[in-house]
Specification:
The chain is built from 14 helices and 38 strands. The structure holds alpha-D-galactopyranose (GLA).
């Protein structure tokens, strides 16, 4: 059992191979945070680690204690994990709560959270859950803290349930999913920030006194910040040192913050953004927060990323496509934008098929009168001028070619110029009497209203039933404005954003359950809603609208801090690139896209014969190693953010096969040779090292680095690259090489 209760010290010890998490029922009934770090022996209590009050000048006993789920207004001046307002009774309007220990239960397995995505177990033996129930005696409010620790995933999942066990109404104003008080602030904080087409930028800096963090107030998680926060010790890197992270399984407004108090105690919090949020609980009602997941590593950040990858790939993603190899697709967007005919699409599809592509995806522009982005969202019937046989006819013709067929949709949106808007102008989010703001020339449907979700379910189920559609790209191209729902009474308007998110999850749940064979890909103008919440429904997502090979190196590196390669859709597009105007080699673009779910986004009819040959080679290679790239352990060997050289590696789960990609970015004269140290190999094993022949190789690198090599040699001695580097490199910018390793089994030839 990975949860141990020590009755004498009243400590709960949650532990697995990489960390221990200890909390305790304090003398006054509050729950104190004792320890979160490298594993401690599970038996026995740790009284010396107990959080102790520090009585400085004018300090009360609660001001400095490390709490597990700190309340507002009772002596702790740091930002609270939750706050409520009692709306009735003699203390009506008060916000003070005294949540003290009432009971606890430790049980095998893990339950789901109603209406919200969460990690799961397939067998009760995979995890244990601690339910810790607190009660505010004066009001009857109960708070249950849920902790699930996995036996073979180095992660801890937490969420919180509020139960109004009193007589009067309670208004929840803030309800974090995870709050963690740590004893010192000596960490650097890393967050994933950005903007449209340049998401997942690694942003790092030392913690400073006071409040800092990332958040969204857009109704979606956003391109700007991801619901994730990582701490690493100064000097820690991908392969050494202590790191700890929180990730939120949610797709709406979030907050992830750190607060360093004047005594140097650090409080981390992650959950729904309290800004604009409130939730009313009638007598007997409950409210569940989204789930947050902590990962900890004392051996560097890469190991922590791998823990997230494996948990999210195998115990957050679900459904038929979770473990299946993902198809190589051609998406029509950059090839045609809105301008296509059925004939053109079929021409593209035929060439795509001949190149080895498996799935043809028709993107935006197929419905209503959609010839530009100013109309028709909501009118989900085919444009018969472009598609005389409708989606059914096109899908049949594409499947007859031997390809699967996929379709782009944007269910949550409505254009002012649409039949849907003419019929239901009140379905678009907005405040009566006020002008709505258009963004990308569209409005957003009020997904908090069940009748709108019902309508969308009926529309999209009939489309999915009408044609052989095996894939859906679910887009969402703008943030929310004018938050207000006509279906909510004034005192419940603070519930709008969360109810919107619950509506999206409801539609996803119903569609994925009704069409279990369909592969869903999430998208929001690229990575505007690339978060763990949607991974539970769509096992892969469109990471960024930026398809430039070099930019992608940066974006995919950032995303790999949390998200598995199986979730990262990576497309090779035409050059000059449509977002940056940059031209890179096909092999370079292909190699970047190998480390994810490979796809294409171009017009195959516009390719030269050489490009076609090159693309066919990219596809052949990927097909031969698809499982390695989609499910292998991922190593950031060298970070493109901080150097002119980058390198990634994928190692199969059984350790028998690996691929290492080396990317030289901007050419520099007189650069000198370079050692690339591989990771994760068996030091005692021997590996057969080859190169991807179409990868554009320097002959000297090939000579030096192929053949039979020891795992120890490759990890500690490294590959010897750029060994013939002339003082003026002839290859120019963006050069890449890909090495393949196959473990030589004892007793087999070559051993
Ligand atoms: C968004 C998506 C693109 C494409 C367009 C279509 O920007 O990220 O991939 O689907 O919408 O309008």
């Amino acid at each position: 059992m990975p949860i141990y209760y020590h009755a004498e010290t009243r400590q709960f010890h949650l532990y697995n191979k990489t960390f221990s998490y200890i909390l305790r029922i304090l003398e006054n009934g509050y729950i104190g945070q004792v320890y979160c770090g490298a594993p401690l022996a599970p038996q026995g209590g740790y009284p010396f680690l107990d959080p102790l009050p520090f009585y400085g000048f004018s300090n009360n006993e609660r001001n400095s204690i490390r709490f597990e789920y700190p309340a507002y207004g009772n002596g702790d001046y740091r930002l609270p994990a939750f706050s409520v307002r009692f709306l009735a009774g003699p203390a009506g309007g008060a916000q003070v709560v005294e949540p003290v220990y009432k009971a606890h239960r430790i049980r095998p397995g893990k339950e789901g959270i109603s209406g919200l995505p969460a990690v799961y177990t397939e067998d009760d033996r995979e995890a244990d859950t601690l339910e810790l129930e607190l009660e505010d005696a004066a009001s009857g409010l109960r708070i249950v803290l849920y902790y699930t620790i996995f036996a073979s995933h180095n992660c801890l999942a937490r969420h919180v349930r509020f139960i109004n066990g009193g007589e009067g109404k309670v208004l929840i104003q803030n309800a974090m999913s995870f709050s963690l008080d740590l004893p010192d602030p000596d960490w650097n904080m890393v967050t994933l920030t950005g903007a449209w087409a340049r998401e997942f930028k690694l942003t790092e800096g030392p913690l400073r006194p006071g409040f800092q963090g990332v958040e969204s107030r857009r109704g979606i998680t956003g391109h700007q910040q991801n619901p994730f926060l990582l701490l690493k010790r100064p000097g820690a890197d991908d392969f050494g040192g202590e790191a700890l992270a929180l990730s939120l399984i949610y797709s709406g407004n979030f907050l992830a913050s750190a607060e360093v108090d004047p005594l140097g105690i650090l409080r981390l919090r992650i959950g729904i953004n309290p800004e604009g949020f409130s939730w009313e609980l009638e007598k007997g009602q409950t409210f569940d927060t989204p789930e947050a997941v902590l990962a900890y590593s004392s051996t560097g950040v890469n190991a922590l990323s791998q823990d997230y990858h494996r948990l999210y790939r195998t115990r957050l993603a679900r459904g038929e496509w979770r473990d299946k190899e993902r198809p190589i697709l051609l998406n029509s967007w950059e090839g045609t934008y809105f301008n296509f005919t059925e004939q053109k699409l079929l021409e593209m599809a035929k060439i795509a098929r001949d190149l080895g592509i498996e799935l043809f995806v028709l993107d935006d522009g197929w419905f209503g009168e959609r010839d530009a982005d100013d109309s028709s969202l909501g009118d989900w019937f085919p444009n018969t001028k472009k598609l005389p046989g409708g989606i059914t006819g096109l899908a049949q013709k594409i499947t007859a070619l031997g390809l699967n067929f996929g379709l782009w949709i944007e269910p949550e949106m409505i254009s002012e110029r649409s039949r849907l808007f003419a019929a239901h102008p009140d379905w678009a989010i907005g405040v009566p009497g006020r002008k709505r703001i258009e963004t990308r020339r569209q409005y957003v449907l009020d997904m908090s209203r069940p009748e709108i979700v019902d309508h969308l379910f009926s529309v999209f189920s009939s489309i999915l039933s009408s044609a052989p559609i095996s894939y859906i790209k679910w887009d969402m191209n703008r943030s929310l404005t004018e938050p207000f729902s006509r279906s909510l009474p004034p005192e419940r308007q603070g519930e709008f954003f969360h109810r919107y998110c619950l509506g999206v999850y409801d539609l996803y749940t119903r569609l994925t359950r009704s069409f279990p064979g369909v592969l869903f890909e999430s998208c929001a103008g690229g990575g505007g809603r690339f978060d763990p919440g949607l991974l539970a429904f769509a096992p892969q997502g469109w990471l960024s609208d930026d398809t430039d090979g070099f930019q992608r190196l940066l974006i995919q590196t950032g995303a790999s801090y949390v998200y598995p390669l199986s979730s990262i859709c990576a497309h090779v597009s035409a050059v000059p690139n449509h977002q940056t105007g940059r031209t890179t080699r096909l092999a370079f673009r292909g190699m970047v896209a190998f480390f994810g779910v490979l796809g294409f986004e171009l017009d195959p009819a516009a390719l030269s014969p050489e490009e076609k040959t090159g693309i066919a080679a990219v596809i052949d290679f990927y097909k031969a190693h698809r499982a390695l790239f989609q499910t292998g352990r991922f190593f950031r060997l060298r970070n493109p953010v901080s150097s002119s050289r980058a390198a990634w590696m994928a190692l199969s789960q059984d350790g028998r096969e690996a691929a290492a990609g080396y990317f030289r970015l901007l050419a520099r004269p007189n650069q000198g040779p370079f050692r690339l140290y591989l990771k994760g190999l068996d030091p005692a094993a021997r590996y057969d090292l080859t190169v991807w022949e179409d990868g554009g190789f320097s002959e000297a690198d090939k000579r030096r680095n192929t053949g039979c090599r020891g795992g120890d040699e490759l990890m500690y001695g490294g590959l010897f690259l750029d060994s013939d580097h002339a003082h003026i490199p002839q290859e120019g910018d963006f050069f890449s090489e890909l090495f393949l390793l196959r473990k030589i089994e004892a007793g087999k030839p070559g051993a």
